[in-house]
Amino acid sequence: MLNWVGIAAINMAIAVALGAFGAHGLKNIASPQQLEWWHTATLYLLVHALGLLLVGLLIRLRYITQTTAWLLQIGIIIFAGSLYSMTLGAPLWFGAITPIGGIFMIAGWLWLAVSTFKSKDSIS
């Protein structure tokens, strides 16, 4: 079983580092649209990394399986990764895959809801 708490912590560290880079390293070379993409990617990365931390704890407590964590992590990589890539010069068609990452994130949260409703040891 993967250490999802550790993976979440790595995601949060990456979010802080990339947020700082966006605020200081890109402000003079990126367009306002690119900076907006970077900001959105960083926000979603940080928020979902915090969610992944909670999910990792629930996995350790054996309330849920790893499925939610996988869905969230794949979503983070696709969603934030595509926005970061476009900011750094990747073709704009990368924007077409961004929503796929969002769908994975939504699926992760819905899977968490279904999992906790179905759990015999439901969290009260």
From TrEMBL:
Record family assignment: Belongs to the UPF0382 family.
Source lineage: Bacteria, Pseudomonadati, Pseudomonadota, Gammaproteobacteria, Moraxellales
GO cellular component, one term: plasma membrane
InterPro entries: DUF423
Organism: Psychrobacter fozii
Cell location: Membrane
Membrane topology: Multi-pass membrane protein
PANTHER family the record matches: TRANSMEMBRANE PROTEIN 256
Keyword flag Membrane: yes
Primary site of residence: membrane
Name this polypeptide is given: Uncharacterized membrane protein YgdD (TMEM256/DUF423 family)
